[in-house]
Automatic annotation (TrEMBL):
It comes from the Bacteria. This is N5-carboxyaminoimidazole ribonucleotide synthase. The keyword ATP-binding applies. One of its GO terms (molecular function) is 5-(carboxyamino)imidazole ribonucleotide synthase activity.
Length: 386
């Protein structure tokens, strides 16, 4: 990094994660430069944006010359692009870690090698392979694309063996291109994520465990620290550390877990800052965004401790009204500056409180003010149950 100018963080992908990374980088004296194929990508509202696609090597060459380090807002940057950049400039997380996290089969295989149990799974390459996998995995099950699936997209739920034809009709065409995996459906009691960060020198930290609620495969709400933190945190931290060390990972990642009868099962790993860690902006001493910037630039990591309790609501499709609706309601508002569109993450809000009873009250008040009572209900219930 040059001493004569401010360091520049290159970010591949210009969505809300890049936007929040750029906003966290600024107070550290770090400028961001973002690449996205869409000229109106929302990170472009807060940082300079290069419009280029992942195979525009002339634009990427120029980008690599202008930045000190490259990182990702988007994990599906082609592995070849990440590797090509890594030959020119420091890229964190490294392309091998990215490649493992891009492939559900490689990811689950690694989880098992690291001692993290997973739902039963089997690769599916053709229609006969689906029958073979169903015979092993059983039903109910979920057929998923190995690559390029996110937020429940590229998935088909099979209630019984008789759904095999329908599952193949939905996803069979993707078998040749992205590969498929059949996973046992887990009747989990809770979903958790552990947000972790590893620095360039190997320093490793986790934030307190986060409990998550998904609706139709998309994150709806997060609560941190998760109420069952005492029993599960040490094991989750140890697993995240093992994974990070195996991958020589640098930066923030999220490990998504199911809790079934007190045991942790690995669902997936996101090789980047993650939606379930957005609460850390106001709810932790150092946010996931700031620590990611620190990690990839080789700066010391900040304290990952929580300041109290936090709950985060995702706004999907459209914002539930303009920010002034929050007057009198104690919440932190995040508008990503994206046009409304069905299924799209357009913003979030975080509510913080010193204790569970106050947080439950504030959540209920916000849910009511915004007409989102149903969205807050499971989190309020979990807080009241303790
Ligand atoms: P994914 O994109 O794989 O993280 O899936 C999105 C969400 O679908 C998860 O957070 C779960 O709520 C649900 N899901 C995915 N895989 C399974 C599974 N094997 N069993 C039960 N629910 C699942």
């Amino acid at each position: 990094m040059s001493a004569s100018r401010q360091p520049v963080l290159g970010i591949l992908g210009g969505g809300q994660l890049a936007r929040m990374l750029a906003l966290a980088a600024a107070p550290l004296g770090v400028n961001a430069l973002v690449v996205d194929s869409a000229a109106d990508a929302c990170a472009g509202q807060v940082a300079p944006l290069v419009k280029a696609d992942w195979t525009d090597y002339a634009a990427l060459e120029d980008f690599a010359r202008k930045v000190d380090v490259v990182t990702f807002d988007f994990e599906n940057v082609p592995a070849e692009t990440a590797q090509w950049l890594a030959e020119r400039v420091a890229v964190f997380p490294n392309p091998r870690a990215l490649a493992v996290a891009q492939d559900r089969l490689a990811e689950k295989t690694l989880f098992r090698e690291c001692g993290l149990a997973t739902p039963e799974f089997m690769a599916v390459d053709d229609r006969a392979g689906l029958d073979r996998a169903l015979a092993v995995v059983g039903a109910p099950a979920i057929l998923k694309t190995r690559r390029l699936g996110y937020d429940g997209k590229g998935q088909f739920r099979l209630k019984t063996m008789a759904d095999a034809d329908a599952a193949w009709a939905a996803l069979g065409a993707q078998a040749a291109k992205h590969g498929l995996i059949l996973e046992a459906f887990v009747p989990f009691q809770r979903e958790l994520s552990v947000l972790a960060v590893r620095g360039r020198g190997g320093d490793f930290r986790t934030w307190p465990l986060t409990r998550n609620w998904h609706v139709d495969g998309v994150l709806s709400m997060s609560l941190a620290p998760a109420p069952d933190i005492d029993t599960l945190q040490p094991r989750a931290t140890e697993l995240a550390r093992t994974l990070a060390e195996r991958l020589d990972y640098v930066g923030v990642f999220a490990l998504e877990l199911f809790v079934q009868e007190g045991e942790l099962l690995g669902n997936e790993m996101a090789p980047r800052v993650h939606n379930s860690g957005h609460w850390t902006i106001e709810g932790a001493h150092t946010s996931q965004f700031e620590n990611h910037v620190r990690a990839v630039l080789g700066l010391p990591l900040g304290d990952t401790g929580a300041r109290g309790l936090s709950a985060m609501f995702n706004w999907i499709g459209e914002l539930p009204g303009p920010a002034p609706v929050l007057r009198g309601v104690d919440a932190h508002w995040h508008d990503y500056g994206k046009p409304a569109r069905a299924g799209r993450k357009v913003g979030h809000a975080t509510v913080c409180a010193p204790d569970a009873a106050t947080l439950a009250q504030r959540l209920e008040a916000l849910g009511k003010a915004l007409g989102r009572e149903a969205q807050v209900a499971p989190t309020v219930e979990a807080l009241r149950r303790g």
